[in-house]
Write a structure and sequence with these properties.
Elements (H helix, E strand, L loop, with lengths): L1 H19 L16 H8 L7 E2 L8 E12 L2 E10 L7 E7 L13 H9 L3 E5 L11 H15 L1 H4 L1 E11 L1 H11 L21 E5 L8 H7 L8 H6 L7 H6 L13 E5 L9 H8 L6 E5 L10 E2 L2 H15 L10
Parallel strand pairs: 4-5, 4-6, 6-7, 7-8, 8-9
Antiparallel strand pairs: 1-10, 2-3, 3-5
Helix pairs in contact: 3-11, 4-6
Keywords: Hydrolase
GO molecular function: pectinesterase activity
EC number: 3.1.1.11
């Protein structure tokens, strides 16, 4: 009888999670998924007593559409939330897909809600997505999911007023690395299993990497990401093994090694904590001779996860919107604010 009750309890939890459909965790009650603005605030408030959690309140100038399923894997539905400018002065608006962080194993798409709102206020259609975390599906499943989200947004461009030729992908921390890898692998079917069955491209026209790694293989990255005291480390859990065991995958997942003449423009928005953006300088050195546009912007005296908090959110939005406006040739008079 106890066994039956346990099964019933689990079934109810799964059903309830599907009904809510708003978070991307492997179990509805997964205690390991603790990467939120609230938990991060508690870690940072001692050193940064002036910070506030960025508001998720949606202003009247922005339309929020929540819990849209963008892809299914059997019974598993991955969803996104969409933020649209209500009064944009241009009919077709650029889009951006945001990928949350959390060490590839935690986090929620609502972590990027404040930035998505900020981008909508600047005239962008912004999507915050859930994707499969490492306890559910290891590398490269998350990249597959992000490409699927870009394809969904492009496929629904007319419905939501998106310019299908102006879709960026961005993210923070692990989400920054995933977003960057998604963008630099445009056209590579290995990272996009749905490509052969769809006429809709999953290519991103610009990349926003917010404090995410560009090279897993460097000594500086492995010092933290392959720490032998962690069993497994966050990266190790994602790859299914340490660097020595899964060297090929650690190399394969590093955006640094995909730079070519067709690489999209990249914004590196970084904190004052250098360990999180390892590899971006080396990546830029590869981009320079190819003439690929890039920008490095640092938020001074900031912690990792700065984009979750005021006073850093608005400067971050300004940098991201400014960079994308330039790449998409959008003048300030064209863009809602």
């Amino acid at each position: 009888m106890t066994h039956v009750n346990n099964i019933l309890h689990f079934t109810i939890l799964v059903w309830f999670a599907a009904l809510l459909g708003c978070q991307n965790i492997t179990r509805f009650d997964d205690p390991a998924n603790t990467y939120t603005p609230e938990t991060t605030y508690q870690k940072l408030i001692g050193e940064y007593p002036f910070i506030d959690i960025a508001s998720r309140a949606v202003p009247v100038s922005v339309q929020e559409i929540k819990n849209i399923t963008y892809i299914r894997y059997g019974q598993r539905a991955l969803q996104l939330d969409l933020y649209l400018p209500k009064s944009a002065l241009i009919q077709q608006k650029p889009g951006i897909v945001f990928v949350h962080g959390g060490g590839w194993r935690a986090g929620f798409r609502t972590n990027f809600t404040p930035m998505a709102i900020g981008m909508a206020e600047r005239g962008y259609v912004a999507a915050t997505i859930s994707y499969r975390l490492s306890p559910e599906a290891q590398y490269p499943a998350a990249v597959h999911d992000v490409k699927a989200a870009i394809r969904w947004l492009r496929n629904n461009a007319k419905k939501y007023g998106v310019n299908p030729q102006q879709i960026a992908v961005g993210g923070g921390s692990a989400g920054g690395q995933i977003a960057s890898l998604t963008g630099v692998t445009n056209g590579l079917e290995k990272f996009d299993p749905k490509a052969k069955k769809s006429s809709i491209s999953s290519a991103a026209q610009a990349i926003v990497n917010i404090d995410g790694l560009s090279d897993f293989t460097s000594e500086a990255a492995r010092f933290h990401e392959d720490d032998p005291r962690k069993n497994p480390s966050a990266a190790g859990a994602w790859f299914g093994g340490r660097y020595a065991e899964k060297t090929e995958l650690w190399h394969e997942a590093s955006p640094l090694f995909y730079v070519n003449k067709n690489t999209p423009p990249i914004l590196f928005l970084i904190s004052a904590q250098e360990r999180f953006s390892v590899g971006h300088k080396e990546m830029i050195e590869k981009m320079k001779p190819l003439g690929i546009p890039y920008k490095v912007a640092q938020i001074p005296d900031s912690p990792h996860s700065f984009w979750l908090f005021d006073p850093w959110l608005q400067p971050s939005v300004d940098v991201v919107a400014g960079f994308l406006d330039q790449q998409f040739k959008i003048t300030r008079s064209d863009n809602a604010r």
